[in-house]
Amino acid sequence: MKKTNYVYKMLDELITNELNPQMLAPMFMNTEYVETVKHRVMNEKKKICYEIKDQVFALKTEDESKLYISKYHNALVVLIGKNYDYEYQRGFSPVVKLKEFLLGQLHEILHFFEEEFSSFLTNEKWVPITRLLAVRLEITEKMEYLLNRLKGGIHGEAPVYIVKEYLDDFVARIDTRVPITAHELNFTLEMVKDIETVDMEKGVGMTNCPVLNELLIYWDLNSKRTIEYFITTLNMLVSQYKTEVEQLEFLKFEQKRLQQIPAKPKSTWNPSYPSIRQYCNDYVTNEITYREKRMIEFAPLPDVRNTEVYDNDKFKVMVALSTDQIGLLLRAADEIRVLVGRSIRAVFKAIVPHIATPKKNNPSPDGMRAKAYSAEDSDKEVVIGVLQKMIEKIKGY
Predict the structure, then answer these.
(1) For residue 304, what pLDDT is reported?
(2) Is residue 91 classed as helix, strand or coil in its secondary structure?
(3) How far apart are CA 273 and CA 363, in angstroms?
């Protein structure tokens, strides 16, 4: 993209230097000086609007225009925040009036962006502090009421804490002036609105699912803590069933109920991550597949007198890891000589035909061996975690 001039240079220097409370010279803050600065700012505002239009029209592609508009919109939000924070420093009344005037002019430029370039602005645009502080006040004043609305359900306290932690973090980000996007703001406001209006007895999906659990999926608050809560709760509930058949039926029922919970249109906390629905569905699907295969593996052996042909695939050992992760384990075992063969290829050839994974019934020995030398970090972390659990288990024997 062609290099462009920084259109806010004059305003930035005015706010950062001339109107900085630590650099103000009181003798200059008279009415005449204030009027002079106001005149400069108004002229500069007109100049900025014209220059932004000229630079946008000079760009060749829509992507370049979007990048340019986003950059200057967000830079303007930063200037608004800086000027707003300076406003409440101790100072002389003329400079306070001047900063109030400057804040109004900056908002007019922001309105110019919204009017002229709305098609180039996305929900990833930053929100000015003046808007965020109003939302902060609304949330803090309603916090106790919102939490009381959520408490007392059969979901327990854990999901209530997840919502509280999210709202507390949102407020803290405003206090520390961390940039907040329009997407994040809208997501939070919709969450607050739903807590206030949703029937806490019926929920949003009529699925007999605990209401707050249902809401977390409905909003798609797909944070790490939310995912951990759902997986931990699911495993705890599964463990209450004594037989494999009962556990399998429960998982299938939960998977069906998960799909029945509605999704709030255009709502997700982090669009870069899988949704709660997708993550949990994948997890439950893998559990169901694993348990169904395991029930086959450990079924009573057929009467050899009445059976002439066996399906050897049914008697493989199921390993609840991916082929890439198993490859890492076998490679390490070969290299430290826990498994000893003529070659590492011979080790894989001897072992792999007798195992299956939840996704592959007949993994390739050579393919698995090749993957062991180009492993991804995520697979390494999974294998390390499994080994650590085995170590802790052995310590307890």
Answers:
(1) 45
(2) coil
(3) 29
pLDDT given for residue 310 in this prediction? 41
Cβ-based neighbours of 273, under 8 Å, separated by 6 or more? 222
DSSP letter (8 states) at residue 124: T
Q: What contacts 93, CB < 8 A, 6 or more positions away?
A: none
Predicted local distance difference test score (pLDDT) of residue 186 = 96
182-197 vs 158-175: helix crossing angle, rounded to 10: 140
Residue 315, number of CB atoms within 10 A of its CB: 14
Q: Hey, where are the domains in the chain?
A: 9-121, 131-295, 312-395
Kindly give, in sequence order, each residue whose CB lies less than 8 Å from that of residue 26, ignoring residues fewer than 6 positions away.
92
Dihedral-angle region of residue 152 (phi above 0 means left; psi in -120 to 50 means alpha; beta otherwise)? left
Write out the two tokens for 90: 């101790």
Q: Rounded distance, CA 218 to CA 349, Å?
A: 47
Which residue in the block uniquely carries the two structure tokens 């509280």? 164
- pTM of this structure: 0.69
Closest CA to 264 of 307, 312, 216: 216
**Both tokens of residue 304?**
């050899």
Q: What is the pLDDT of residue 392?
A: 82
Nearest to 112 by CA among 38, 62, 53, 185: 53
DSSP letters spanning 282-302: HHHHHHHHHHHHHHHHTSPPP
Phi-psi region of 319 (alpha: psi -120 to 50; beta: other; left: phi over 0): beta
Q: What is the mean pLDDT of each run of 10 residues along the chain (397 residues)?
A: 75 85 62 86 93 87 89 94 72 73 93 90 93 96 93 80 94 95 96 91 77 91 92 90 88 89 90 90 89 70 47 68 89 86 84 86 86 85 87 83
CB 292 within 8 Å of CB 359: no
Give the span between the Cα atoms of 371 and 116, in whole angstroms. 52
Q: Which 3 state secondary structure label does DSSP give 32?
A: helix
What are the beta bridge partners of residue 395?
A: none
